[in-house]
Design brief:
Length: 124
């Protein structure tokens, strides 16, 4: 649909829109300086928004994998030294494969070391 207006109609419409804008500005100014009062003359109660439930601070409750202890890390290091794969070890300990690889590459649990047995010499 196409509406064609004459120049006079366009000027009249523009003037009307300008007048409406001026009236809206006056209304906004009046409302900004006004107070809200109930019909009985009392001030309305201010509603505070309901407090949202806070999220848990840690994701520990959602953790799918177990935390390893020193004894388990020693056993993992022994198994890695014997050539077992990180995948099979991670399945057995229900630990993420990245955890096993971090132990393997020395990124974590550096302080836990395998005791190397001293070489046994046989005297003839």
């Amino acid at each position: 649909m196409l509406t064609i207006l004459s120049d006079t109609q366009v000027r009249t419409l523009s003037d009307s829109i300008e007048t409406i804008d001026q009236h809206l500005a006056t209304i906004r100014a009046l409302l900004a300086d006004s107070q809200t009062v109930n019909f009985d003359g009392t001030a309305p109660a201010v509603k505070t928004p309901a407090k949202a439930e806070s999220q848990p601070k840690t994701h520990k409750s959602r953790r799918k994998y177990r935390v390893l202890n020193t004894r388990q890390v020693l056993e993992i290091k022994r198994r890695l030294a014997n050539g077992e794969t990180a995948t099979s070890i991670s399945r057995d300990y229900k630990a993420h494969i990245t955890t096993i690889n971090s132990i393997k590459w020395g990124k974590t649990w550096k302080h836990v070391t395998l005791q190397q047995a001293e070489p046994v010499t046989v005297h003839a």
